[in-house]
Design goal:
Strand 1 (70-73), helix 3 and strand 2 (91-94) form a beta-alpha-beta unit. The chain is rod-shaped and about 130 Å long. The chain has helices spanning 6-22, 36-59, 76-84; strands spanning 70-73, 91-94, 97-100, 103-106, 116-119, 124-127, 134-139, 144-147, 150-154, 156-161, 167-169, 172-176, 181-184, 191-193, 196-198, 211-213, 227-229, 232-233, 242-244, 252-254, 257-259, 273-275, 281-283, 286-288, 295-297, 309-311, 314-316, 326-328, 341-343, 347-349, 353-355, 361-362, 405-406, 411-414, 417-421, 425-426, 438-443. 11% of the residues lie in helices and 30% in strands. The chain has 2 domains: 70-362, Pectate Lyase C-like (3 Solenoid), CATH 2.160.20.10; 405-443, Seminal Fluid Protein  PDC-109 (Domain B) (Ribbon), CATH 2.10.10. It has a 12-stranded parallel β-sheet with strand order 1-2-5-8-11-14-17-20-23-26-29-32, with helices on one face. The longest helix is centred in the N-terminal third of the chain and has 24 residues, at 36-59. Pfam families: Beta_helix, CBM_5_12. Residues 369-391 have a biased composition (Pro residues).
Length: 444
């Protein structure tokens, strides 16, 4: 039996009305066929049927969209083909295994309602054959998500170029000669979260940043509103854990754990986070180990490196060397033209303190901590002039000798006092006994 179509089902009420009309009494049935009245009735019925059909088509709800397509791949060749042909709403799933090559997505944008996802477990490993180039590069690829995979053994890990709303989630990136993840060429609203990045910058030039946003020495790269959330960056990141370049603004760095054991000072890498962009929020991060400072807003040129807020970050500067070892080292500050906000819930262990002198610390929930009032020096009470101690005369009398014979009136000195013999005496030590041979007459 043929199942009626949706259009046929919606015509059922019209057929029912026709059946009802046929069942009417003879006095009410249609005239004899081929009369003018009959023709008019047929024309009216046909017009009504056509109208109802149009209404049915106009009001029919669209059929539900087909389920999003999943493309499963297990070889490098299949992966390259899938990336080149990706369409919105598609998921490319990688089987566990090693995929060797330089993988590129170019000109395959998706949409917010139908993103494209590249996914696999941490055992789906993308790597280059020679350690050169980028492992994965997305260009003009809006609304892509990269999830779960491992990227390793290359010059650079994941590069995002001219692509907005790219999310990198739960990936592992390591063993690179340069940076791990880079949002550049005006790639805005990107997110890196729940990921691990370690062992970067293996060439020792200090250019192995964990995460890099923007481009150096240019202000045309407006990779704005990038968020770096809940990642573990380090150990052995040979460059800043996060490097934010001038020309970018409005991002957020939150909930990350930074290890600074890879910092060497090469290429000015002496902090976990270096912010040269504007209006960033840096909060709820934990950093351990650094050569100098924890967090640094820098001004590469006037008007940049301003407006950053640092709050509730925890810094362990144990082992930092030299001067200027601050959890938050603000290199340029002007309350009117280049403000930086440091709140009182930031904490520090070791080093020279929370923030360098001259930078106000804002109370959480309030304004800046007041400058402590100088302690008023008490008016000293006049020191009384001491009464002069009597001068003790020198012992001029000869010292007492136990073997000498002394007659009455003889004078000797002994143990700081002067004595006079009362009578003849020999061998009796001078003292203060009431009935002794010696009477004390003074001190010396």
């Amino acid at each position: 039996m043929t199942t009626p179509t949706a259009w046929q089902r919606r015509r059922a009420p019209l057929a029912t009305r026709r059946t009802t009309l046929a069942a009417r009494p003879a006095s009410l049935t249609t005239p004899t066929t081929n009369t003018p009245a009959h023709r008019r009735l047929l024309l009216a019925a046909a017009t009504t049927a056509a109208t109802l059909a149009l209404v049915a088509v106009a009001t029919t709800s669209p059929e539900p969209a087909a389920a999003a397509e999943t493309v499963s791949v297990s070889t490098a060749a299949q992966l390259k083909s899938a990336l080149a042909a990706a369409t919105p709403g598609q998921t490319i799933h990688l089987a566990d295994g090693v995929y060797t090559g330089n993988f590129k997505v170019t000109g395959r944008p998706a949409t917010a309602s139908a993103p494209i996802t590249l996914e696999g477990s941490a055992n789906a490993v993308l790597r280059t054959s020679s350690g050169g180039g980028n492992v994965l590069q997305l260009t003009d690829a809006d609304h892509w998500t990269v999830h779960g995979i491992t990227v390793q053994n290359a010059q650079k890990g994941i590069m995002v170029d001219s692509s907005d709303h790219v999310t990198i989630d739960g990936v592992t990136v390591h063993d690179l000669t340069m940076e791990g993840v880079h949002f550049r060429t005006s790639s805005s609203y990107g997110v890196l979260k729940n990921s691990r990045i370690f062992d970067t910058g293996q060439d020792g030039r200090g250019m192995g940043e964990g995460v890099y946003v923007g481009s150096a020495n240019t202000y045309s790269d407006t990779s704005d509103h990038v968020q770096i959330l809940d990642n573990v960056i380090g150990p052995l990141v040979r460059g800043e854990n996060v490097d934010i370049k001038e020309g970018t603004r409005g991002g957020r760095i939150a909930g990350n754990t930074f290890y600074g054991d890879g910092l060497t000072g090469a290429n000015y890498d002496d902090s976990w986070v270096d912010v040269k962009g504007n209006d960033y929020v840096v909060e709820d991060n934990v950093g351990v180990g650094t050569t100098k400072s924890g967090f640094q807003p820098h001004q590469q040129s006037p008007g940049w490196g301003c407006g950053t807020t640092f709050r509730n970050n925890s810094s362990d500067l144990s082992g930092a060397v030299g001067s200027g070892r601050y959890a938050i080292e603000v290199t340029v500050y002007d309350a009117a033209t280049c403000p930086v906000t440091v709140t009182s819930d930031n904490t520090v262990v070791g080093g020279d303190g929370l923030v360098n002198p001259g930078i106000p610390v804002s109370l959480v929930g309030g304004g800046p901590s007041p400058e402590p009032s100088p302690t008023r020096e008490p008016t000293p009470s006049p020191t009384p002039s001491p009464s002069p101690s009597p001068t003790t005369p020198a012992c001029t009398a000869p010292a007492w000798n136990a073997g000498a014979v002394y007659t009455g009136g003889a004078t000797v000195s002994h143990a700081g006092s002067t004595y006079t013999a009362r009578w003849w005496t020999q061998g009796e030590t001078p003292g203060t006994a009431q009935w002794g041979a010696w009477a004390v007459v003074g001190t010396c």
